[in-house]
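Reviewers asked in the last cycle whether our approach scales beyond single polypeptides. To address this, we selected a multi-component target totalling 757 residues and predicted its structure end to end. The input consisted of the following lines:
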Amino acid sequence: MDKAYNPQAVEEAIYKMWETGGYFTPKLIPKEALPAGRQPFSILLPPPNANADLHVGHAMYVVEDIMIRYHRMKGDPTLWMPGADHAGFETQYVYEKHLAKQGKSRFDFDRETLYKDIWNFVHTNRGSMENQLRRLGFSLDWSRNVFTLDPSIVETVYKSFKQLFDEGLVYRDKRLVNYCTKDGTGFSDLEVLYVERNDPLYYIKYGPFTIATARPETKFRDTALAVNPKDKRYKKYIGQTLEIMGLLGPITMTVIPDPHVDPKFGTGIMKVTPAHDPHDFELGRQFNLPVTPIIDFRGKMDFSWFLSQKDIDPKYRARAENYHGKKVAIVRPLMVEDLKADGLMIKIDEAYTHRIGTCWKCGTVIEPLPLEQWYVKVAPMTKKAIEAINKKQVTFVPKRFEKTAKQWLTNFHDWNISRQNVWGIRIPAWHCALCAQNPTRFAKAIARRANTTNKSNAQSIRLSGWVVTDGEKPETCPTCGGRDLTQDTDTFDTWFSSGQWPFATLRATRDFDYFYPTTVMETGYDILPWWVCRMLMLGIHLTGSVPFTTVYLHGLVRDAQGQKMSKSKGNVINPLKMVDQYGADALRMALVFGTGAGNDQALSEDKIRGMRNFANKLWNIGRFIEMNLQISNPYDQITIYDENMHKMLKNPNDKRIISQTNMLVAGVTKDLDRYRFSDAAQKIYNFTWHTLADVHLEKNKERFKEGDGQAIAVLRHVFLTIMKLLHPFMPFVTEEIWSKLPRKTTDPLIISPWPGN
RNA sequence: GGCCGAUUAGCUCAGUUGGUUAGAGCGCUGCAUUCACAUUGCAGAAGUCGGAGGUUCGAAUCCUCCAUCGGCCACCA
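The resulting structure, written as structure tokens, was:
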């Protein structure tokens, strides 16, 4: 054995040995044939983006590898399934940047070409992410590798959508969507990132009133004024229709009551713009106000409704033309000047701060815009998910996230699953041109079928000519027989498909019966609402059972000072670079050691170096044993420790270390069963270094040198036991040392039985 | 405004059924180098466990209040 452990020299070969040896693939012994106490154990790797390199956060999946390797050694049929995510919008975003570098944009291509190009782009890059997972030593069953766009996955997603549609849990509605005008797509509520911002609050004269607004540009399409019904100042105006002078001439609008209006804010009067504010939109539905947009999907002001009118005052025409087609941010100051010129600007409060929705990806201000989209009615599903949590069908580690999850599930609004992206699973819904063109005919069809049809048809009729299938294009419209059917151009929110990941993947690999529900879902707490809650609600609803029985959440990996890692700060730790430099085991151990579940952690290179030193310490204990075995006789029976030897031990040092080892085994096993990985790691570390090496080994050196067979046998037994306990944490160095020391079996460490059974 | 977390040695953090002199990693100080390992060993310094009350035979741990710092959520136009 070399003087120092050199991970670079051995890790690749060891991983290859594991992988080609088939050790990652579980043996599906029938459950009734399993030994007592053994049961299937499974984890699905949260699929990383197929197109991107791993970041250090992904290395936290080491927690999963620890559980997987532990259960594999215990003899449970153990599955860790790898996967890759097409990451719809995110990948398209990256690809568009890639196109921009070539001076192109996505609009230079037709849909099919663009999809194919992105497909190729992703598949060129995909292998690197998977190899990085191998570099980290993750014992994933690559024979079951799945991709979110695999036909079998897509098939399940189609079927689920159809089922939800048939059950009336999917519907189409035109309402305000969180729209990014730069990226050209809508988002669900979860994807809007709210940021604190300082904007002027404008006080504008509105007929007899003054209103305060941060968005003066929408005033052209105000359709009402709202006041609190309890506000004595304005109570008398409720129900009145007023003519109000605006920048483009007079507008008439009604004063409506709204208990949400805060009399203390601004002047206590709120202008209502149903087309551009979610709350106003709701008021619009309540009071039958028209939805009249003035901002288009590119974020530009659209005055065509005004300019198309006849006999417009030239002054107003000039104004409208000046604003028309310009971005909101440009028009706002122009308007402010015009308001001042007309004497309508009362005052401007520059110190106004509020929270504004931005695109989580590009930072553009999100515009609420009226758009027809597919929605999932979540209430029936979230209710079941909450019940499952209450009944402890699923438990959380740490426990506090149970409350968080329930809060999320309670507060979910209906979920917009339509995205205006190309890269994704296209929604299997077709629109009938005939039904759309001929509402009368459509209405007759409704009347004719109203009493006789099944639920499914009734639903499709309600959706004015939309036909949903489980993937195939329908030949004719079931309502009117029309043949002019066009598929929705939108794709699913990736979370809609990944929310079905547990049963979609296990069906794809035909493991559903054996491994569903999976045992543990391990991921970062930051995607609890996006992913974990969605999997719970969709999984329970669509399969009748929770998709996993334990949720373990880890925290974010931050830099040495606890700062969030970011490219701009330059404090990003590249996990692969750390693996190159210190070995995968060092990085793995550093991420687990001293880290509480669900808590963010500060990771420093010093810490990784410290764990590299620990690997070297192990190596040298191994080396010491190997050298002493050569002095005595490595194949002498007495050097093979067995349980019966315990009774024969004469030397108190040997007795003590054996007893300490047994306590260690018990402690580590208990910690692992309780998901206390840090505790287990620290126990092994301290025992190895400070009990075994510093004390036992030093005190008994003379005995080893003299070739005391019993002393050496005990030492080796203790050390090999440590190798087993530590293998889930530091698989490479333990496997390598294991291979260097003579032992009873030729099996690799990865499948050697867990001690203490 | 609501919810959740954090506050323990210079730094980063463990400390889950409340129990003897409070722990780790890194850093620091002194000594040691043909001995498995300097990616080392030995010795050591260093904490009134954020503050104030309370419960208890006993509190870093449970309760109340306060302070500071974070995170997440919410339709203040």
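Residues 452-461 of chain A have pLDDT under 50 and may be disordered. We regard this as preliminary and will revisit it once experimental data from Aim 1 are available.
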